[in-house]
């Protein structure tokens, strides 16, 4: 039986097979996407891939891509993005995603939603019947008035049994402080007892209408395919219908 880390690598390597020389890539963030960065670096060093450039979805990815020698472009400097490769926290049966439990959802959504293919790489444990089944659905909010914004997010799900929301905190020294994203924003985490039931598009619209919300971690209808590494070591590639 392969470990979860090995499965992440298997999925990442399969997605990197879709990369050809000359492509501009969206470079994802997280432990699964990290395997794709390493593989891209290896292929560039060996000369099997040439003239590839990447647009990093986080400062961490920018540093990693720099270490492994992937040439980079800023989002504004890329005329097109041919293919983005990134992990996800959850993938539902329609290939909608929860992303951003690592805090990188905004840049990911900007880059992965800017055209081209978006290939998601996961191990089997990320497949869920409904988004929000296995943990937090993050929402990026501006720090100003964040308590008011948190209250307005709670109102969207008013009366929903088992729903809760809180500001994501981290411990620094002995103190709990808000988690700060690469964009200087905070994260509200939404929790659902048994996942999100209802129209995701409508829920998305209601969240995005709240002044103070910057973006949320539901990636609806964005993934063009999902590479799933299964426990037995086989790989399935699911395509959006
Ligand atoms: O903010 C984090 C990103 O959305 C990641 O792609 C996501 O959290 C999945 O990360 P991992 O591959 O480490 O499970």
TrEMBL record:
Q: Which CDD domains match?
A: RPI_A
Q: What reaction does this catalyse? A: aldehydo-D-ribose 5-phosphate = D-ribulose 5-phosphate
Per the UniProt record, which EC number(s) apply here?
5.3.1.6
Q: Which GO terms describe its biological process?
A: pentose-phosphate shunt, non-oxidative branch
Recite the UniProt keywords alphabetically: Isomerase
Pathway field of the UniProt record reads: Carbohydrate degradation; pentose phosphate pathway; D-ribose 5-phosphate from D-ribulose 5-phosphate (non-oxidative stage): step 1/1
Q: Which Pfam families match?
A: Rib_5-P_isom_A (PF06026)
Q: Which Gene3D superfamilies match?
A: 3.30.70.260, 3.40.50.1360
Which segments cross the bilayer?
Answer: none
MF terms from GO for this chain are: ribose-5-phosphate isomerase activity
The stretch of residues making up the signal peptide is none
Q: Is Isomerase one of the keywords UniProt gives this record?
A: yes
Query: Which family does the similarity line name?
Result: Belongs to the ribose 5-phosphate isomerase family.
PANTHER family attached here?
Answer: RIBOSE-5-PHOSPHATE ISOMERASE 2-RELATED (PTHR43748:SF2), RIBOSE-5-PHOSPHATE ISOMERASE 3, CHLOROPLASTIC-RELATED (PTHR43748)
Please name the NCBIfam families in this protein's record: PRK00702.1, rpiA
What is the protein named?
ribose-5-phosphate isomerase
**What organism does the record attribute this protein to?**
Leersia perrieri
Q: What is the lineage of its organism?
A: Eukaryota, Viridiplantae, Streptophyta, Embryophyta, Tracheophyta
């Amino acid at each position: 039986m392969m470990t979860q880390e090995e499965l992440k690598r298997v999925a990442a390597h399969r997605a990197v097979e879709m990369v050809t020389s000359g492509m501009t890539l969206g470079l994802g963030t997280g432990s699964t996407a990290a395997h794709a960065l390493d593989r891209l670096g290896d292929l560039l060093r060996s000369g099997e891939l040439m003239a590839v450039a990447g647009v990093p979805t986080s400062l961490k990815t920018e540093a990693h891509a720099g270490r492994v020698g992937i040439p980079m472009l800023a989002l504004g400097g890329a005329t097109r993005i041919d293919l983005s490769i990134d992990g996800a926290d959850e993938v539902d049966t329609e290939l909608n995603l929860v992303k951003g439990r690592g805090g990188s959802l905004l840049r990911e959504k900007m880059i992965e939603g800017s055209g081209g293919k978006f290939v998601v790489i996961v191990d089997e444990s990320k497949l869920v019947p409904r988004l929000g089944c296995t943990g937090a659905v993050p929402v990026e909010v501006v720090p100003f008035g964040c308590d008011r914004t948190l209250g307005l997010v709670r109102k969207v799900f008013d009366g929903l049994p088992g729903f809760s929301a809180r500001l994501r905190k981290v411990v620094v020294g002995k103190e709990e402080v808000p988690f700060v994203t690469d964009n200087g924003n905070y994260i509200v985490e939404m929790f659902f007892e048994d996942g999100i039931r209802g129209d995701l598009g409508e829920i998305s619209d209601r969240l995005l209408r709240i002044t103070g919300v910057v973006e949320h971690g539901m990636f609806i209808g964005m993934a063009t395919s999902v590479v799933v590494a299964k426990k037995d070591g086989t790989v399935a590639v699911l395509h959006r219908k």
